[in-house]
């Protein structure tokens, strides 16, 4: 199993190690040298020195092919993607932006097609998400396959399956770039109430403790809603106790279908002003893939979509143009004098409008703007 990835990345060339935060740029001439190595060639001396200095890896006297995977250049410029394996979840969180969570994912052969498409599009950092990705029956196989293709993997999870020894074993052998666990409360009553599942807090706590004990790279996403706002400090203290980074998420979005019900879970006093939107590379350097293998601009801008199973990566040639169209101000945002200081991108504004959400959730105006046809 590889410990080093040599890969092109958006015009540069990188050396990375799964599960390790540090990476380094190498010149193209060195990357070309690594690409030209045959199966029996030993690691070049310079590589042995670099991986030892950077990650304390001992590659001396070993065949390069046993230590490293060398990725091929792509004609596309993508470096990151998210792949939603399955919308199914073992929880039923009141604020969830996925709305109806159908338990549907691709059969294995089609998943392999999608993973190859992600690799061939140049994706180095891949986020696996759901639903709850770890309850997907093919999670372990999908994770391992993506890892073997030379991707650095982040998993977004509620952590409820992390105490499973088989799962922990796989993740410690094939280390993720990051495991990001959502936190829905600091007490059993609040956590189980928000997720609408008895035992959810217990499963999360066991999973977090087990993953921490195994030394996996963890981060916490503290989800703040009306139900758990009184436990914000305790949730932050949990991250501090474990010594792991955390970030707060308090701005609730409508569902991906434009459903407004979830907005009622927002804790009004925690609604934060979004940072000024200065453009986004969605669709140009990263994209999203849904459980059916459809690639789209991002998790919010899901239409139009491109089937990776039917079209493969050739279809992705259209994605940057689709994204440009979606990101341009339109509809109620056309000609807005405040767009320069607005924190809501166009796809998100469109979703809030579809949900007929109160302007305070996303817009600087206090009254709906009338737009000439
Ligand atoms: S929601 Fe908006 S800011 Fe976020 S990735 Fe999509 S286009 Fe970019
Ligand atoms: S301030 Fe409101 S109308 Fe103006 S660009 Fe932002 S969301 Fe659109």
Automatic annotation (TrEMBL):
<keyword id="KW-0949">S-adenosyl-L-methionine</keyword>
<dbReference type="InterPro" id="IPR007197">
    <property type="entry name" value="rSAM"/>
</dbReference>
<dbReference type="InterPro" id="IPR058240">
    <property type="entry name" value="rSAM_sf"/>
</dbReference>
<keyword id="KW-0411">Iron-sulfur</keyword>
<keyword id="KW-0479">Metal-binding</keyword>
<protein>
    <submittedName>
        <fullName>Radical SAM protein</fullName>
    </submittedName>
</protein>
<feature type="domain" description="Radical SAM core">
    <location>
        <begin position="75"/>
        <end position="281"/>
    </location>
</feature>
<dbReference type="GO" id="GO:0046872">
    <property type="term" value="F:metal ion binding"/>
</dbReference>
<dbReference type="GO" id="GO:0003824">
    <property type="term" value="F:catalytic activity"/>
</dbReference>
<dbReference type="Pfam" id="PF04055">
    <property type="entry name" value="Radical_SAM"/>
</dbReference>
<dbReference type="InterPro" id="IPR050377">
    <property type="entry name" value="Radical_SAM_PqqE_MftC-like"/>
</dbReference>
<keyword id="KW-0408">Iron</keyword>
<dbReference type="GO" id="GO:0051536">
    <property type="term" value="F:iron-sulfur cluster binding"/>
</dbReference>
<dbReference type="InterPro" id="IPR013785">
    <property type="entry name" value="Aldolase_TIM"/>
</dbReference>
């Amino acid at each position: 199993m590889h410990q080093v990835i040599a890969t092109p990345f958006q015009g540069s060339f990188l050396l990375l190690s799964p599960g390790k935060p540090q990476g380094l740029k190498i010149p193209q001439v060195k990357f070309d040298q690594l690409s030209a190595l045959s199966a029996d060639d030993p690691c070049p001396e310079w590589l042995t020195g670099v991986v030892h200095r950077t990650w304390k890896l001992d590659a001396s006297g070993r065949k390069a092919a046993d230590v490293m995977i060398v990725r091929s250049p792509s004609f596309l410029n993508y470096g990151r993607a998210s792949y939603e394996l399955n919308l199914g979840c073992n929880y039923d969180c009141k604020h969830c932006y996925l709305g109806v969570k159908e338990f549907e994912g691709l059969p294995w052969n089609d998943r392999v097609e999608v993973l190859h498409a992600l690799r061939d599009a140049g994706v180095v950092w891949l986020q696996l998400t759901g639903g709850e990705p770890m309850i997907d029956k093919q999670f372990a196989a999908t994770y391992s396959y993506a890892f073997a293709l030379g991707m650095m993997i982040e998993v977004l999870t509620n952590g409820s399956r992390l105490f499973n020894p088989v799962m922990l074993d796989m993740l410690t052998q094939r280390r993720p770039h990051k495991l990001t666990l959502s936190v829905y409360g600091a007490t059993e009553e609040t956590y189980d109430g928000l997720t609408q599942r008895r035992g959810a807090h217990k499963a999360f706590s066991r999973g977090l403790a087990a993953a921490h004990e195994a030394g996996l790279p963890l981060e916490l996403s503290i989800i703040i809603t009306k139900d758990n706002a009184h436990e914000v400090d305790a949730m932050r203290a949990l991250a501090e106790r474990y010594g792991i980074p955390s970030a707060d998420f308090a701005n609730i979005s409508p569902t991906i279908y434009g459903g407004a019900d979830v907005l009622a879970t927002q804790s009004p006093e925690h609604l934060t002003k979004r940072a000024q939107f200065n453009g986004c590379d969605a669709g140009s350097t990263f994209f999203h893939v849904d459980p059916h293998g459809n690639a789209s601009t991002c998790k919010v801008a899901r239409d139009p979509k491109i089937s990776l199973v039917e079209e493969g990566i050739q279809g992705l040639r259209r994605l940057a143009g689709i994204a440009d169209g979606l990101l341009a101000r339109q509809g109620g945002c056309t000609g807005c004098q405040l767009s320069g200081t607005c924190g809501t991108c166009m796809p998100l504004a469109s979703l809030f409008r579809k949900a007929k959400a109160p302007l305070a959730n996303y817009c600087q105006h206090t009254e709906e703007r009338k737009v000439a046809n």
